[in-house]
Amino acid sequence: MDWAYFLQQLINGLTLGAIYGLIAIGYTMVYGIIGMINFAHGEIYMIGAFHSLITFLICQAAGISGILPLTLLLMLFVSMVLTSVYGWGVERVAYRPLRGSFRLAALISAIGMSIFLQNFVQISQGARVKPMQPLVEGGITLMESANFDVQLSYMQIVIIVLTFVLMVVFSLLIAKTSLGRAQRACEQDRTMAGLLGVNVDRTISTTFVMGAALASVAGMMVTLYYGVIDFYIGFLAGVKAFTAAVLGGIGSLPGAMLGGLLIGLIEAFWSGYLTIEYKDVATFGILVLVLIFRPWGLLGKPEVEKV
Amino acid sequence: MSAAFASSRTNGSEVVKELAFFAVIALLMSVMLLGVETVDRPTGLELAVRWDLVLIAIGATVIGRLGLIFRRENISRLGQAVLITLSAVAVFEMFVRFRELDDRWVSPVFLDMVFSSVVSTIVGIAFVAIIFATAYFTMKDKTSADVEESAKLSSKIQLAYRSNTKKIGLIGIIFFIIFPFIFGEDRSAIDLATLVMIYIMLGWGLNIVVGLAGLLDLGYVAFYAVGAYSYALLSQNFDLSFWLCLPLAGIFAASFGIILGFPVLRLRGDYLAIVTLGFGEIIRVVLINWYDLTGGPDGISSIERPSFFGLADFSRRVPEGTIGFNELFGMEYSSMHRLIFLYYLILVLALVTNFVTLRLRKLPIGRAWEALREDEIACRSLGINPTNTKLSAFAIGAMFGGFAGAFFATRQGFISPESFTFLESAVILAIVVLGGMGSQIGVVLAAIVMIGFPEMFRELAEYRMLIFGAGIVAIMLWRPRGLLSFRDPTILLNMSQKEKVAGEIK
């Protein structure tokens, strides 16, 4: 067995998994709090990618793209803020009025929203693939073997570190702040939380905003990592991130991250050792297997059926 | 912030605050995606600025919000209608302006468009009038008597609709049968009608799964694809005729339904939705990559057209040993014959689907589906096997999807994985849900609205899917239970027709 090759796939898989994990958190938080699949979440991620690309182009036009850390911070900040507004707006327009309605209504509305956002970006920004030059170049050679060098690029380090930092921050936010407490309360019983003085509407809005902010970070990292985006990237990434959320146990934050990493690894190893064409089939296959044998996921709790 | 939303009294400063809040939201949402355009240049991406769009977006949001405040606070019926209409016109203006403009500060494009010809003037005025009227007449006065009045009225309409379903259905069928006689020579009308009919059939097929059994299937297009590819492959590799392949395609699709359904049907609603979506995508990926069998992304072309029940052929030069359709009936050759035949074929197929569904609803299995939809636990305790029951719904729904797929393949003569994307599934599902799940006439109505209208407005091609997506959201917000909400079981204990309607309105 070629260990160098294995290590390289491991690194690639972890990078990809970090991105999926960040998107998956948005699904898992929303599902935890209002019990619906936010089908438009993948499009939010795509919008995040576009925001970061446009911010970069503006920086370039303004002539500050030479100062790399500043540009990256600006991209991160602007794209998080603007994309969060989309997350807020989607909830406000398409989901809030349907909250008391039957389950499928919200899901259908989400599908409609997803189609709308996709086409909105297609019309306003064009259908072509948008290329972007690599900003963070170079890397470390971890291991040299006869026919293969293991590369850990700086971009991959940025992605993994940033994901880690965001995970810690958001876990603290949920565990320690009053906002997080309100969220957990709503998750358990929305009516009761409302009676006890929690502003339920605002808490749900914040959940959407947080999910969108994380998805926009994922979008920005994809823009930087792959260097190409188009209006269609949201669908597949969304489905895979949802798979990750289910795999980890929907409703559980560490579960989403773990699921994301696993999906990333599976995809990387599948394309590395088997066929690259069928990597999506592998992901969906995993989803089916998990749902059949362990529907509550790796870290979730089995749901008790109530009459 | 939240205080502004909760205000029930009109208060100047709070209204201003609320408007300012929404203006900021609109600014943040539009500043990059609308305000800046990424343009492909040989040297890389460049930016083009379109601040006019941002301004219009903010304007439309603020005016629209003000209209909603008027509406909410019961200020002025006329005022809110005017404001909402203005806002809609501004949104329209914004979307027209996506097209390249030499000078971004020219006068409103909307006016230019409206006054460019008589037809567009009429269309423009109608557009404005419809929005105005909708806003004007849907505003509810907050007196309870009015609310009761409108509830009574809508229950009357429902009752009238329900007691006349058979008549409405019959009129519909007669209309569709004589349709080719009215539009006989109009090729595009027949084509459009055939297309709508395909979606009606798919909708009815999916209605068995979603409407009757209550299983959300986001991958219905997979069965459609299986049907289409099985006909195409059987006819190309084994030289079988359409009439032999049609039942085979249905059987193949149904077996796929059983294979797919068996492991996943234990899952709850939205999990099932995602798994079916996954299966739909798997089928598509396999179709793209299994080059030897399916031709990959190139698809399969020159698929055989159907003959007149094996008796006669529709082409101008018929092969040796067969006779042409026109010779059989002693008519002049016309290329329309084939199209009209195809139309009647899909009409019959769709009606068969409908008939089977209506009969199944009255059989024990149909009752079990509906019961399962309403309460799974109760069903289990009464001895209904949920897995087998769901599986039968899945398989029957899949079979009709397969029939429709075979028809699609023979009508197009060319199929490729492109035709079987997730979007197709979403469209079919939207038809079922918008029609009101379980309602057969609702599916027809929704198919005409969703497929017919967008096809008629081909010039707006680039905006079609945008409007489609927004339309789904809008209809869901307006009528979450579908255009013809009609979901109660076929039979209920101790409930007269009237009570049934009243019970639903609550």
From TrEMBL, chain A:
Membrane-crossing segments per the record: 6-32, 44-64, 70-90, 102-121, 153-175, 208-229, 241-269, 281-299
Membrane topology, as annotated: Multi-pass membrane protein
CDD domains named in the record: TM_PBP1_LivH_like (cd06582)
GO MF entry, a single one: L-isoleucine transmembrane transporter activity
Keyword match Transmembrane: yes
Major site of localization recorded for this protein: membrane
Domain of life: Bacteria
The name this protein goes by in its record: Branched-chain amino acid transporter permease subunit LivH
Family annotation (InterPro entries): ABC_transp_permease (IPR001851), BCAA_transport_permease (IPR052157)
Family designation: Belongs to the binding-protein-dependent transport system permease family. LivHM subfamily.
